Amino acid sequence: MKRRDFLTLISIGVATVIVDGLWAFAASEHKYKLAPESLLPKDIMSASEEVREAYRFAIANRDTLRYIPCYCGCGEQGHTSNASCYFQDSSTPEKPVFDRMSLG
Predict the structure, then answer these.
(1) What DSSP state is assigned to residue 36?
(2) Cβ-contact 86, 58 below 8 angstroms
(3) Is 62 within 8 Å of 93 (Cβ atoms)?
(4) What dihedral angle (degrees, nearest 10) is formed by the CA atoms of 33, 39, 43, 45?
């Protein structure tokens, strides 16, 4: 086999691996826990899909969001963490009182 033919085969093989890897990455979906939409109040249910998904994520992952600071400047409103952007801090997971700030 000539050197040129060998390098061509190697290039095709590398390109195939890269394309296959990118296809697999693009086809994979992020998997994370979401609460059912039925837990959302009517005004949040009428929001965009992205906003509803954010609230559903917040319901299911509230304890984690409490450890993440909020970077949107809502600290002036008394928010203590990213969870505060979705819930009033005094509310409980069983009876969440939603904050409407994240509606936009």
Answers:
(1) -
(2) yes
(3) yes
(4) 50
- The answer to whether 84 and 76 are in contact (CB under 8 A) is no
pLDDT tens digits, residue range 74-88?
777 777 888 888 888
pLDDT for position 19: 45
pTM of the model: 0.67
Are the C-beta atoms of 87 and 97 separated by less than 8 Å? yes
**Overall average pLDDT of the 87-104 stretch:** 85
At residue 87, φ and ψ (nearest 5 deg) are -135, 155
Beta-bridge partners for 87: 98
Residue ranges of alpha helices (H) inside 28-84 are 42-45, 49-60, 62-65
How buried is residue 33: exposed, middle or buried, by Cβ count under 10 Å (0-12/13-18/19+)?
Answer: exposed
- Assess contact for 87 and 58: CB atoms under 8 A: yes
